[in-house]
Write a structure and sequence with these properties.
The protein has about 80 residues and is mainly alpha-helical. About 50% of the residues lie in helices and about 10% in strands. It has four helices and two strands, in the order αααββα. The chain is globular, with a radius of gyration of 12 Å.
Length: about 80
C-alpha cells in the first residue's frame, strides 16, 4: 500500500487545516477556527470551503461545526 501524502496547499490554507487538526475530534465553528489561526472569519470560511471541495474536511449543518475528514493524515505526518 502506498503511503498517503498531503496535498500541496498554500500556507494559510495549511494553517487552517492544522488548526482544525489541533482542535481535535469534536471540530469547531468557523469563528473559533479563524481566531486560533489568526485569520478573518470570511477568509477562514473560504479556505474551509475549498478544503471541503478537496475532501479534507466536512461540515455538519445541524451543529455548524467543521471536522477533519481523516485524522490519519495528521497522525502519521507529525
Amino acid at each position: 500500500m502506498l503511503p498517503t501524502r498531503r496535498p500541496h496547499l498554500k500556507a494559510l490554507t495549511t494553517k487552517v487545516l492544522n488548526t482544525l487538526a489541533d482542535i481535535g475530534v469534536g471540530g469547531a465553528q468557523v469563528d473559533q477556527i479563524a481566531a486560533r489561526a489568526g485569520l478573518r472569519t470570511r477568509c477562514a470560511a473560504a479556505r474551509l470551503r475549498w478544503l471541503q471541495r478537496g475532501g479534507l474536511v466536512h461540515y455538519v449543518p445541524s451543529t455548524a461545526y467543521w471536522h477533519l475528514a481523516d485524522d490519519q493524515l495528521f497522525k502519521d505526518a507529525r
